[in-house]
Amino acid sequence: MGESLLLITLFTVVILAIRRGKPVILDNPVIIERPGHYHITLAPQLNQAQTFVEAIARQWGISARQAVDLPAQYYEVRDPRVSSRDTDFYLLAVALRGGMLYLQAINPLPLVCDADSHFKTVHDFSEKVLVLHPLPPLAGGYDESLLNGAVEAAASQLNIIVKILQAVT
């Protein structure tokens, strides 16, 4: 009797140790906020993108930028550790408002007609999130390399491929 219980316990421990754990993929959006530093919105099933998005926020913090407002920059992100719905990439928007970093990661939508684009998809989503934080008029433009530098540095550290999305005219 005792040997059977010991054998079952040992067998269970071995199975649990050998079995690879599956990552948990959430079906609800995830919002992470560190007041005064960053606000992250991750679409459903993109919670695994949290590592990269928080690395961008850390990279931005390391550079100790001044509290400025910068328009959103949009990216196509290819991260092998993140499984997106039916695609091998997800879309990312990064903006700075009042010195606070706003990051949104979403799944791409199928491109049905010629007017559709991944830029438009991520731009529209980002605008909805940032509706309470409008961009004030910029005097003399802005330096987009500030945000791009943080994104590219975080991507290179994690071996992630990012591509800047531009509006199609």
How would you characterize the overall build of this protein?
It is a single chain. This protein is α+β, with helices and mostly antiparallel strands and 169 residues long. It is built from 4 helices and 6 strands, in the order αββαβββααβ. The chain has one domain. Strand 1 and strand 2 form a beta hairpin. The radius of gyration is 20 Å and the shape is elongated. The model has no long low-confidence stretch (mean pLDDT 78).
Briefly say what this structure is.
This protein has 169 residues and is of the alpha+beta class. The chain is 33% helix and 23% strand. Helix 2 (50-62) crosses helix 4 (145-157).
Keywords:
elongated, 169 residues, 6-stranded mixed β-sheet, alpha+beta
- Characterize the biggest β-sheet: 6 strands, mixed
Radius of gyration: 20 Å
Number of strands: 6
Overall structural domain count = 1
Q: Globular, elongated, flat, extended or rod-shaped: what is the shape? A: elongated
Itemize the secondary structure elements and their pairings.
Elements lengths: L1 H17 L11 E5 L3 E5 L7 H13 L7 E9 L11 E8 L2 E7 L11 H12 L15 H13 L3 E5 L4
Parallel strand pairs: 2-5
Antiparallel strand pairs: 1-2, 3-4, 3-6, 4-5
Helix pairs in contact: 2-4
